[in-house]
Design goal:
The protein is of the alpha/beta class and 233 residues long. The protein is 47% helix and 17% strand.
Length: 233
């Protein structure tokens, strides 16, 4: 076994929580922590990604308990939140760890479109990009005239214009609208615009980030062969 001991996982946990805004679900940490330990073998990496490594989960959970006892994080069920003291510790130790792999390139507009198409296919929808003036659309069936879901992917540009497209589709067919934005920094701007200009569809629209779309895709991909069995009518 090349898995690291639990005490060596503590600082990476703090650094990951600090880097993702302070709070995250532990099941997302299991895979992201791999990059801090180049000694982990390919077979073990595969087991971790498939959720089959109880040893790794136990080591991460033990590290989490230790951090909680030291008042460096707070754990509420599966949600872990870094404390102010934990942030100070992570900052002080940042130079001690480097990720084994190069940080991934930021997702582009077209990257997220393709992810949304694949997510739709995983869930049994007919999905396509650039339909009329929408970034991504899902239908119940390939020949269905009704658009079930529509997505506007916003990496830059006018958020109000994206909301206007979503509003039009919702009012015409009660299509479920989604705005996908590039970062959490844009969340407040999007929410303010929604409340200010588009209150009539505020309850219908879902706002997601690129990171959330990548996580959904990653999780669905891991069960892609099984999921359709549950969705069969």
């Amino acid at each position: 076994m090349s898995l690291p001991p639990s005490h060596s996982i503590e600082i990476p946990i703090l650094q990951e929580l600090a880097a993702t805004g302070g709070t995250d679900e532990v099941h997302f940490l299991y895979e992201r922590l791999i990059g801090y330990f180049p000694q982990i073998e390919d077979r073990e990496i595969s087991e971790i990604k498939n959720g089959e490594s109880r040893t790794w989960r136990k080591a991460v959970q033990k590290a989490g308990r230790n951090l909680d006892e030291k008042n460096l994080i707070r754990r509420i069920r599966g949600l872990w939140t870094i404390t102010a003291r934990g942030r100070e510790t992570a900052l002080a130790e940042t130079s001690s760890f480097t990720l084994a792999a190069t940080a991934p390139e930021p997702a582009t507009h077209s990257d997220v479109q393709e992810l949304l198409v694949e997510i739709g296919c995983f869930l049994g929808y007919a999905a396509e990009t650039e339909y009329e003036y929408y970034d991504v659309v899902w239908r119940e069936k390939p020949n269905s005239p009704r658009l079930s879901h529509i997505f506007e992917v916003q990496s830059k540009g006018n958020i109000d214009s994206a909301f206007a497209k979503l509003k039009r589709a919702y009012q015409m067919q009660r299509t479920k609208p989604f705005l996908v934005i590039s970062s959490e920094k844009d969340l407040n701007r999007a929410r303010q615009s929604l409340v200010r200009e588009f209150q009539d569809i505020e309850s219908a629209i879902t706002i997601l980030t690129f990171v959330q779309i990548k996580r959904v895709h990653q999780n669905l991909k891991s069960i892609g062969e099984i999921l359709p069995k549950f969705l069969e009518s």
